[in-house]
Design a protein that fits this description.
By secondary structure, this protein is an alpha+beta fold. It has four domains: 1-161, Beta Polymerase, domain 2; 171-303, cca-adding enzyme, domain 2; 308-361, no CATH class; 368-411, no CATH class. It has helices at residues 3-12, 18-35, 44-51, 71-81, 128-133, 148-153, 164-170, 180-183, 186-198, 204-215, 224-235, 240-249, 252-257, 263-269, 274-282, 297-307, 309-318, 322-329, 334-343, 346-357, 368-373, 380-394, 401-411; strands at 39-42, 63-67, 86-89, 94-99, 102-108, 110-113, 122-125, 143-145, 172-173, 201-202. A hairpin with a 2-residue loop joins strand 4 (94-99) and strand 5. The protein is elongated. The structure holds cytidine-5'-triphosphate (CTP). Cytidine-5'-triphosphate is lined by residues 43-44, 64, 135-136, 140-141, 184, 186-187, 190.
């Protein structure tokens, strides 16, 4: 790509403008010619392209590219054109280039062998046909060869050896072989996620095999990281709660967490953001079922606080004084309080909102330095005195720095 064109790509980065997608495809196409290999658009983008009313490049959320060779060399060259840092996953023969709100995944066409159920597969270079056969559902198992006609005019010759287009027409999610859910039980989550997002049904045998895999507990063989990722993806969907309700109905929640979500979970969760839904969901699960998950400390903290929140709301109901509310809520993580604000009501809610919007930012002028000037020996008494002044201010008993000084003198008996 010559300098002028490179500049154009960079100017458009992040805007997910049609022309940047088109240009990225064009760069990959030309690199494929240079290395004398074949390049294909595969997976989700092909599905979304075929389902789109208007066939243009704007519909691509990400690009998923399969190459019959040289994925590292081509990945590196593309990354340098895009001035982005590539991340390689040699074990899976894939690489990723992340732009501000767009991702290009590049992979060697490959086949997979699952040494045991639910573990990540071993991968070997293979043809595009074999690559399509290893995938999850027919609708995700199609490829569009990168050609000039496609890049210029979006005229696609679709490689569809497994009947993806028919299943799109019939609105069906269909696995490619009977062991699919056993090899990779994350496909149980994926099937429900795509069905809900696209308004598709599970094809009959697929639905039976899915229930069978759930019943035989294959899900419990998955690593915590993979289960968590799937739940995270589900919470990002528009229909997240419908999918979670399906997981409950199909006994996925029961298998993994030995519990049932209460009906009001769905009511309250509907008021929360995606991230909040996920953490709220986990607050219904006993720690022992996810203690092996690689979760962030903050996430676990918020879950624990939510688990104990009925005690907090009981206390909140009883108190009135602003300083008491302040010191009760102060130890809590803001994410916890933001969730509680949305799922409580009445006076409890009002108090949390008041804390979040006003009380928590209350500042006093008196500092440790002030106390030093008063010749008070540094120690735990500092904290006590400062909190007393803050409490007085919160309760409206003092307002100005002068008031603080007067109160401090009174406290010290001077
Ligand atoms: N895939 C698979 N089995 C999985 C995960 C992924 O076969 N467990 C294949 C599918 O062909 C899928 C592709 O890898 O289309 C890319 O995976 P991913 O990015 O997760 O799915 P998308 O179809 O792109 O979904 P989305 O629209 O949510 O990005």
């Amino acid at each position: 790509m010559h300098a002028k064109k490179t500049k154009k790509v960079l100017v458009l980065l992040g805007e997910k403008n049609i022309s940047i997608v088109q240009e990225i495809l064009d760069v990959i196409y030309k690199l494929a010619l240079k290395y004398n290999i074949k390049a294909y658009l595969v997976g989700g983008p092909v599905r979304d392209f075929l389902m789109a009313q208007e066939k243009n490049f704007k519909i691509f959320k990400d690009l998923d590219i399969a190459l019959t060779g040289y994925y590292q060399e081509i990945g590196n060259e593309l990354a340098s054109v895009l001035k982005a840092r590539p991340i390689f996953y040699p074990r899976f023969m894939t690489m990723t280039i992340s732009l501000s709100d767009f991702r290009v995944d590049i992979a060697q066409t490959r086949k997979e062998i699952y040494p045991q159920p639910a573990v990540l597969p071993q991968v070997f270079p293979a043809t595009i046909e074999e690559d399509l056969k290893r995938r999850d559902f027919t609708i995700n198992a199609m490829a569009i060869p990168l050609t000039e006609e496609f890049i210029k005019n979006t005229e696609a010759q679709v490689l569809d050896p497994l009947g993806g287009q028919t299943d799109i027409k019939d609105k069906l999610i269909r696995i490619l072989h009977p062991k699919s859910f056993i090899d990779d039980p994350t496909r149980i989550f994926r099937a429900l996620r795509f069905a809900s997002r696209l308004g598709f049904k599970l094809e009959e045998t697929t639905a039976q095999l899915m229930q069978d895999a759930i019943h035989k507990s294959y899900l419990t063989l998955l690593s915590g990281e993979r289960v968590f990722y799937e739940l995270e993806m589900i919470c990002k969907e528009k229909n997240a709660l419908k999918i979670l309700a399906e997981l409950q109905e199909r006994k996925v929640i029961k298998k993994l967490y030995k519990t049932q979500l209460p009906q009001d979970f769905f009511l309250y969760a509907s008021k929360l953001s995606n991230d909040e839904k996920l953490v709220y969901l986990f607050s219904f699960f006993a720690d022992k079922h996810y203690k092996h998950y690689p979760l962030k400390k903050e996430f676990i903290l918020v879950v624990r606080e939510l688990q104990k929140s009925s005690e907090l709301t009981r206390k909140l109901k009883k108190i009135k004084r602003r300083s008491t509310i302040y010191f009760l809520l102060k130890p809590y993580h803001l994410n916890t309080l933001n969730i509680l604000k949305k799922i409580t009501h009445g006076s409890v809610r009002k108090k949390i909102v008041n804390y979040l919007t006003k009380l928590k930012d209350t500042k006093i002028h008196t500092t440790g330095q002030t106390l030093k000037r008063y010749n008070i020996a540094p120690g735990p008494s500092y904290h006590k005195i400062l909190n007393k002044i803050l409490a007085y201010k919160l309760d409206g008993k003092i307002k100005t720095p002068k008031d603080e000084e007067r109160y401090l003198n009174k406290l010290l008996g001077r």
